[in-house]
Input
Amino acid sequence: MFLHKVRPSSILDIGVGNGKMGYIARDYLDVMLGERYKKEDWRIRIDGIEVFPDYIQGHQKAIYDHIYIGDAFEVIDGLGKYDLIIIGDVLEHFEKERAWEFADKCADHSNSFMLFNIPLGERWTQGPIYSNPFEVHRSFWSYEEFAPFVAEKSLFHSPGTGDYGCFLVNKVDYIRHRSRHKFRRIEAIYEKREERGEGSDHGDLSDPVVEKDLGVDWSHHVDKSSRGEYSRQGRREVEAPVLRSCEQVLDGRCDEMGDFEHDGDMIYHRNLLALRALDPILADAISASKVSSDIHVLATKKGIPSLKVGAITIHSLHDPEREAEEWVRYHLEDIEKASSIVVLGFGLGYHLFALSKVTDKDIIVFEPRLDILKTALEHLDLVPLLARIKIISDRRISGIGRGFIVLEHRPSIKLDPQGYESIQSRLKVLDKLDRGLKVAVVSPIYGGSFPVARFCAEALKRLGHKVDFIDNSPFEAAYMSIRSITRNKAHQNQLREMFVHFISETNIARFNEFKPDLILALAQAPLGIHSLRKLKENNVPTAFWFVEDFRLMEYWKEIAPLYDYFFTIQKGEFLDRLRERGSNHFHYLPLAASTDIHRKLNLSKEDISIYGSDISFVGAGYYNRKRFFEGLLDYDFKIWGNEWDLNSPLGRCIQRSGERIGTEETVRIFNATKININLHSSTYHEGVNPYGDYVNPRTFEIAACEAFQLVDYRSELPELFKPGEEIVYFKNREDLRDKIRYYLDRPREREEMARRARERVLRDHTYEHRMEEMIQFIFHSGFSPPRWDGRDGEIDRLVKAAGKDTELGKYLAQFLDRGDVSLDDLVESIHSGKGALTRIEKMFLLMHEMRKVYMK
Amino acid sequence: MLRMKDVLIVNLTRMGDLIQTTPVIRGLRHKFPDVRITLLVNSSFSEICQLINGVDRLISFDIGGLIDILRKGPGHLVDGFRCLEGILSQVNETCYDLAINYTHSTDSAILFSLIRASEIRGHCIDEEGHSVKRHPWIRYFFNIIPGRYYNPFHLCDIYLKIAGLEPDGRGASLHVSDDIEGYALTRLNKLGVDNSTPLIAFQLGASAEDKRWPVRSFALLGERLVDILGAKIVLTGSKDEEPLGKEFERVARITPLNLIGKTDLKELAALLKRCNLLISNDTGTLHIATAVGTRTINISLASVYFRETGPYGEGHYVITPEIPCSPCSFHIDCRAPVCKEVVDPNHVLNLALDIVKNGVFLGADVTSPWENVQVYESFFDDDGLLNYRPTIKRPLSKETVFNHLYRKTWLSILDGREIQDVRAAFKGMVRRFREWYEYDPLTIRDLLVDEFHGLIKLKSLIDMALAKIRHIAAEAGRSSPDIEWIKMYWDKVPVIEDEIEAVGRIYPALKPLTIIFRYGKECLEDKDLPSIAEGSVRLYEELKTHVSLMIQLMELMLERRGKWKKQLSRKMQSLSWL
Output
């Protein structure tokens, strides 16, 4: 999975062992993806490091390009850079501190990714094995230590010992995290010293932790770096020489350790060092940038610098600090309401200083011009500010929390409107997401994905989105009646096609009414190709969740390229096929449970006698189920659902003569049954599909009911539930019969298993989780909301038109989270509210009523 | 009314309704000579206001303009809001001593809740947005839709009562200046109509198709009038009624003076003033004619009920079908408008000839069948309010009896004037029955037995409820009332109230009683507990007084009481629910 995502052209495998990682990588990347099965054709460079030479035998040598023997901590220094470094079962063999140091080294040698495979928890004790002393475990690790920088994860559970984690890490995230961590440690040390009133003596600053974190041998430089004019008044003064020295060391200019020629140089380097500790990539980029000739730093009357770029004055030439304070005062009300603040434009940072004084909320500053940032670093002491804010200079705007506001530093934007344009539009989209999208959820006419559509709609609502559930089920009877109109199959199909086209048009009419930001269609939704093209032409974003088997249902081939975002419940081959078909944005999204529908019930005795049995199955009588269940006839076995043959041997197990069972009753059956059998459907297997991959909704639903189930093995199952702990699977009839026997005798074990399964559902597998992931994916794939004709009622504009300080402006501002608002929306919110109406509410009610009466 | 310096009148409906507000304006001016009257109207109908005397400040609300803004979509919400705010700030320039809303719609009720006034009468919403109808006569006003067949009062009189005024017997009034009158006469002369030619105006249009008497009927009528009287027929109406005029010209043998769409309202008023008679559907033109003192014949069709909106003034005539479905309900889409055909041109001709020649309708002639038509003549009755006298004697109907009953009782209840001598009132009613209808005391019994039974049931329900509510009111009035007890005790009241409501549904003639009672209760909802309790007692007592009064009058109506009571008790035994 990770290899597929990274697609590295070079790999360094640390701790080769038996060579499994090398083998997998070679097989997947060269043989499978590259279709290069001959060794001479292999293109991926795979090197390894192994400390225990006895492990290395012929087969590893055949697979790896080169295996270095020795202590990886040292060996790695002599190697170059790789796209992916696999650090598998390595860190636990080091003491913690040394392990992090080693990981830092790996990051230095990685072009983009690192993959950590590591046992988690404290039950993975290990001494020397195979006479290999390096196999001793010296440290214990937890997921929380990796969580801040993990891009993707897989957790496996080993009963008795605990979890095993596979973490794919982006190098940039890792470095950011580590730098921040180091910076905080330095700060903490200085703060402690300040508290103790220390810091007057340079010698005291040679703190081993600081040295280590910054890679400085302090004793060589301390005397040279001290300058008389920097009296020690608190942390900043203490910090300066330390940071300056460090910077010089890092720049490899230790031999030129004379005094700085200008204070400016000193300030710049100090700032840059602080920035590097926080964001080394940005620091490098600034360092490499050239300051444009149109940038002029001018002295103000107050004696502090101001900035003019070309003809545009960025800060007041008289008193930039006062100007900044006024800027903050103007935005104060918004600042107080926001949870985080995005500022567009850095300038020399005066407004940011002023802002940081009035709020301790997160501040993210966007400045596209590196030379302006450089100029700021050169002229003002920004160290305290840098610790407070996060600077971004490209379009990457992740990490902005909900409820943010955008404050514009107008002169900066005026300087480079285009530079800000894209971030402004991305922020707008993010803001829209934050406030909730208008999503039209299109249901199928009937079938298994119908309830899923409803669950998606409900989950989206709970996530704060405005949802129009387009229920196509009223068309079911008419659709079904087509069969009885003619026996000619071709005519039937033609009529069906025409009918679906009609339904599709009704859906389009609904979209025109609702004007959604996004259309989410569920499998079998009757949106015809013609309609999809129409939507595409009008730039209306569409998403499709294909909650069925791509091998069985092939209509995806036609529609997938027409949807902007395509979600699947299968991985591997399907994703490749989608790519081949020209689908751009697709994503694996397993099914889930709706926990307010599928829930634990306290059933009456009567219910238990009706719905209960030792084993049961709820679902349609697919071919494999009919065959497979005959092997369970000697049990107290109830079969619920339709499409079963009452005249078959299973007839006596079939309840209610094979009626379709509604959701609420299904929940009762799950709850009342000792063992729920969950066999994924197949039309061409005799029982369990040995190659089955996706996991059906029933798995999640039974788990959500805190009911016990035995499910047939699916390749995607272990990622979703821990086998043996949260779920029990069977691979064939004998296996199932063994497990039925075992678990029927062990109610306590069943209960425990079911409880853990439910916890897992609540933690990871609700429709809210899925919808959140879906929306995130859509956003990160470059989502941009459509412009519907006449939909110019954007609430921001209305608030501005009303004047944000006016009574009306304030009233409208409460709808900011909707993005846009109509008179109907306003009135709806009034009706749903209680208590006395305000004057403004009455006026909107009046307008609404007048429109109703007079607009004909 | 201690102080009455500033009064606001809101009437956002059509031109006819505005003209029907003129007696109120005149009455206020007369009663409070220094009062400053502000009139808020829909700008589409504001032109007529130029002819209304006594208005100090006219505010035209450009509702069409607001709708145009809202039509542009949600992006213009703020513009719409500002437009509304503009009107409101104009209206709210002053705080009124009294503000009256004569518009029944929900939008006007919301608008009214935004107006600054010490006293509000009319449809309004309370603080939480619930509809309330402030003032007893406003509650009556609202009842005339569901209980219209039992309503004896003209809209103008109800308007006057709402304003706390009594009719002065002068009807509606518009002021036509001498200039305009002179201009109109000159124009007529130029068109070949000299001052001695009998001039009869036809208003062919109406606000809806089903209210229009057929043009060919008008045409036939016109031909005969020209033949017999040598009269000139003048067609009136607005620009959008021009097709009707064209149709008239096409089907009629005569050439009318077609002024449809060729006069403004001032000229129309002057023209009508010159006319000897106007024959009209239910329209604004009809009210203009009555307001300038011209005799009218109102052809009242479809859902129009002449008692509400017929010509307001002395000596006008209404000709209306007397068929089971007339008047029909509002907002129905009739596919067999029999009523249009029932009114025959000969009927109207008969009536018109009498009016022009004798000044009064002498009665139905025998040349054409009149059985499905009735002609009413308007006059101000002894109680000062307008009434319509039937000119053709017909048997009494239940609706008619209740119409007369309610005319006595509502005035007593809503104006708080006790009927001193019930027997005398009864006698007066019987006199009128004998004079106007084919009266048979025995038939009356059959007509009234069910409703009498309903009234007895109603009275017993009221007694049950009153006993409870008086207890509650006593507890609520204490310094520290037992709220839990009150709640518990109050829970039993709604069940009785539901039964009261049911009586109104079972006996439609009693519906006005229960409807107006319900409106009264709605008005209590935003008050505190002691006020609600007190108000409820007052409402129940009022209802009880009304019901008792009606029972007394009905008992008197049933002369042979002993025999009748036996009959009643037999009937009541057969009804298990009592």
Summary: Chain B touches chain A through 29 residues (CB under 8 Å). The first helix of chain B runs from residue 15 to 19.
